């Protein structure tokens, strides 16, 4: 796969920013789904869109994948305008939708071969490519099985394999591991990491913060159609959180002590306090010295989830 991608990059005009959006907007009637965002996705990186429901992630991905036109602003994908050169762009994209849309009446191999024909590939090339992708997705032993009985993880791997039939430069993945068990998620992470090593640029939307930390070189946090923050996972943690978090859990209904003076920031939750601090163990010792006795305590590293919740809030958005 690596050799084919290298040949492809030589044969097309090389664009270093595969996606460039400036003041990009998308309206549905009076509703503003995307409100003037600026985004650059560099060749060879894994770029993430994070945000709660209704943040504008899916609307942005649909504009990038050339299935939904923009309302305003500028957008270039692979150096081209989606409104004028949508078919050319789509020929060089791979798209993994949030819900698998495989043909369940066909075999695993047939799903790949028939999809290849949509891109004008010869029957021989479709057979060769299907064999290659079956190995990549670890589905060679299921090649002649029908799709319907496959597990969720197998179907997801097949959907990703199908998106690679045309050797895309840019792969768009919408919630790629939603609903999968931990083993299936980690296997998919490994496959996606291999793709990035092979030169495929990835754009990922995900609700899993650990997934974003594992896969994304850079990401944006979207909220209310705007970009609330941008950077690498480590940059965002350094900018919006502290090195460590001390969690103090109390009995239900117990009055929680005022510990603001012991941390850079304190978040009050129904059953516990979160103390954001440089040194969690030292903060815990200080809290104990002042007579605070929680039912349970935990010192942990700050994570991208802490950043996400600080920027977007803890209120459930439907």
UniProtKB/TrEMBL annotation:
Pfam families named in the record: ABC_tran
PROSITE patterns tied to this protein: ABC_TRANSPORTER_1, ABC_TRANSPORTER_2
GO biological process, one term: response to antibiotic
Membrane topology: Peripheral membrane protein
Keyword tags: Antibiotic resistance, ATP-binding, Cell membrane, Membrane, Nucleotide-binding, Translocase, Transport
Start and end residues of each ABC transporter domain: 19-249
Localization in the cell: Cell membrane
Any one GO molecular-function label of the UniProt entry: ATP hydrolysis activity
Family: Belongs to the ABC transporter superfamily.
Protein name, per record: ABC transporter
Annotated organism of origin: Lentzea aerocolonigenes (Lechevalieria aerocolonigenes)
